[in-house]
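hey m, so remember when u said the tokens were messed up on ur end? i reran from scratch. heres the input so u can diff it against urs
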Amino acid sequence: MDILREIWMAMKRNKLRTALTGFAVAWGIFMLIVLLGAGNGLINAQMSQMDRFLANSIMVGSGYTSKPYQGLREGRQITLNDADIALTETGFRDHVSEVGATLQRQQLTISYEGEYINSNVTGVYPNEMKINKLEILFGRFINSLDMRDKRKVVVLSEDDAKVLMKGSQEHLVGKFVKIGTSAFRVIGVSKADQTSINTSAYVPFTTMRSMYNEGNRTGNIQFAISGLETLEENEDFEQQYRARVNANHQAAPDDEGALWIWNRYTQNMQMSTGVGIIRTALWIIGLFTLLSGVVGVSNIMLITVKERTREFGIRKAIGATPMSILRLIIAESIIITAFFGYIGMVLGVAANEYMNLTLGGKSIDSGLFEMTIFSNPTVGIDVCLQATLVMVVAGTIAGLIPARKAARIRPIEALRAE
């Protein structure tokens, strides 16, 4: 209690000095927490965009040859077909599963009892729900029986169903709608993807291909991968896959124009690397801000020792031990950094909560699609406590140097000091 009383009296005598020291400490903690919170808000928004798809999935589409090969000219259009699906299923069993394909027709008219919409209609395999993480609100998704029997069934998006049913999409399940001139039974309603420019209605892949006489043509192939953990392994797989599919179409094995491959796993790895760099940069900036607070504490402690040199000399002359003086200065440093560090932590958490309430989850609506740019800009309480603890420890170390100097001074030298 005596030490606390002495520290309190010293702080009262030097209000400005104490306030400036406290501000440096609180500002360092506050800025670290706010920077990390804002960074997390941007990172979480980007990661939520990536989370729309199965992380370990690949989509493959056809293109145009970019070089001549085996006497054939460049610029030939490549069309994926059933042979490519079979090759994907059987030629890469060690790494490939959940193989499917999509085939799309754009802006078809879907009507129901006088209401109509224009929507993209996509023929899909049952794996579409897993690969693109579709959420079914009512009913079910396309299954293998729908594929086998080429059933005329459709899964509508939430927004399209609302328009057709004038706001009550649930009751549309089991009803028949017209796609073009053909009647399709609605078997499900999927959650609308506001981040996509165009909505889509889903029908069985086999039904779509049969209705429009597509033969064995396939639009895009999509599948899940496993056992490919590194960027190098994924690149090797892509090269092998490209070479074998290109061979089906007499295209050069390394012709990247003939076949485009969207590897979401490597995209996620690259995103994770970028996120790691951003987090590291934020921590470096924040730690330098903390360092400014530590320097402030150290400078104030040096000034304190300088001003109180005579006092320490008198204390030692009347029997005070070096350890008691050391303890006094260290305690003052700890109390200042802990108290103002706590204030900075509370203000930083409050600022992050304010950002979360005002900006968290906000999205940009372009009129065609919505994109979230800031999501959950908060920092875990463990990080806040760790940052405060780092400041307290750093402040203690900063006060240790002048404290040792004060403890070692000889009484006669201290009494001569001005």
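this time it looks ok to me. The two ends are 30 Å apart (CA to CA). if urs says something different then somethings off w ur setup not the seq
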